């Protein structure tokens, strides 16, 4: 189907609009601007605007092959106001032109182009320009109000219409319109402007002010549904009430009249000295509408804080309503693991102010500072029953024990059929599909882990040290916005999910889709090569000594033992793929998360989540699972339950590290989602740990 679009051409004194046929065709000729300029070169085209109107240009024959044509021929060149070259919509047209230009820069990796584009595209900016243009127009026309009490007139009209029996449909519609609160508010605003009634009416100054009275300030805030956005505290010795903090972007903050440290003397005429803070709040809340009047003694020296913008990823969950220590639960902000927070105020050592991104609210919320959260975690940790006191226990080992438990159950269930369907040695980890060597398949440790990651394995400790990222260490991770430069190596794509969910299937399909772009990492093994295998293609065949040495030197992302042989994915084989210009796709176990989240690999972690049980039963009817002992046996309902249980555990411990989540329901859909996630990972801007971009900062 042909899409119709139109274009305005803005010259210094004429404006044309051209209907385009199939805009995509036109794009072949580069930018819209240059294509049209070349066609309509006779006119100095200064501005092009995509709009919805039709247009006609006479006598301009545009070659058909350009993909667009002029619909009709009568001349409709409109002479614009010579005093205002840009026309009434001039600014908006310039903006549209600039947006179009900036859009071209989006793919050219120009720093800040994306931010600029979203800023220029913001609907508020468009509205603001409309307002500006209206104001400009009226400034020239200098309009004067016809009457200064439009509200009164409207009110009178309402009464009259109501009083008339059997009035017309038009009158009833007018009645409905005039009763709209927005229209009434508009008329009221009109009257305020017409009457030039701009100043707030302040209460008169008392005559009998003593000479030594402290300088006070009367602050009137108009109350709406928003909270005041300030917390108060009481000095236990003097009984004085003062403002403890002003919430960034809240009502008090936006007024610019109340500040932390200001002493409150009166609220709505009530002296508050000696009151409990709760009583003061009651006085404030007693008046649900209208103005609240504060009499305050302003703080003499307001501390100057140079706030630096800080963005963090939350590595823990927080709910203010469950925190008895928060100064004001209503001012608190809850967050979940993985949320990105913009810290807007760190002046208080214990309570920061933050916004959750993406944020459409101006008002920040209170969150515990890093130090406070660590303290809370320590207290919580000490209050728990005894556990071995290494942080490796908190995540890595516990997680592995859980996984072990799942597998033990699996073995019990399968024991009967064990002999007949035993997993053969040949069914190990690599595969060759239509000449494409998918190195790394089944080498993902997903089989190995069941046997090899026992707690007795000595070298496992090496992993735990690098993987010691317990939330106890750092509840927040500083992040920065990062966009990969086209010349940089690709980000590693790491897939992760509970056993059987389809991680390998998705990885295999992705690589097969475009083996010139996607590749797995060639694993190392200590087993002997088979006749057809080549070192460096299916595996790097290596001796036990070298393998142990690599383990000792932390050279593996993950490794394990299977049928007496060692298998491992080395960091260098991942880097080899990345350095060759391809996108390396690996599947990992949770204990390798920290090993891939590095400045060098910049892993983008995609979590493959099982769909609900009913969908699993439906979609996996013809699928087969490979367990420790069986190759390709049909799924049983226990497999699905174990998968769900494993998924729950994985999510509760590692959700904060997932950059993207794919629910593997329909395989085809999941593949499409995976492809677009990978594209986003390589080309789109993302929040990444600050330590990746500023390697001097210690990685947490
Ligand atoms: N969305 C899906 N719909 C139907 N079958 C699927 C889907 N995703 C995967 N499968 C099938 O499920 C089976 C298990 O998938 P796969 O081997 O990829 O799991 P895995 O997550 O790698 O688990 P493990 O590491 O334990 O092998 C395979 O037969 C695969 O074809």
UniProtKB/TrEMBL annotation:
InterPro entries: GK/Ca_channel_bsu, Guanylate_kin-like_dom, Guanylate_kinase_CS, L27_C, L27_dom, MAGUK, PDZ, SH3_domain. Residues 88-143, 147-201 form the L27 domain. Residues 490-679 form the Guanylate kinase-like domain. Residues 307-377 form the SH3 domain. SMART domains: GuKc, L27, PDZ, SH3. Keywords: SH3 domain. Residues 218-285 form the PDZ domain. PROSITE patterns: GUANYLATE_KINASE_1 (PS00856), GUANYLATE_KINASE_2 (PS50052), L27 (PS51022), PDZ (PS50106), SH3 (PS50002). Coiled coil: none annotated. Pfam families: Guanylate_kin (PF00625), L27 (PF02828), PDZ (PF00595). Belongs to the MAGUK family. This is MAGUK p55 subfamily member 4. It comes from Solea senegalensis (Senegalese sole).
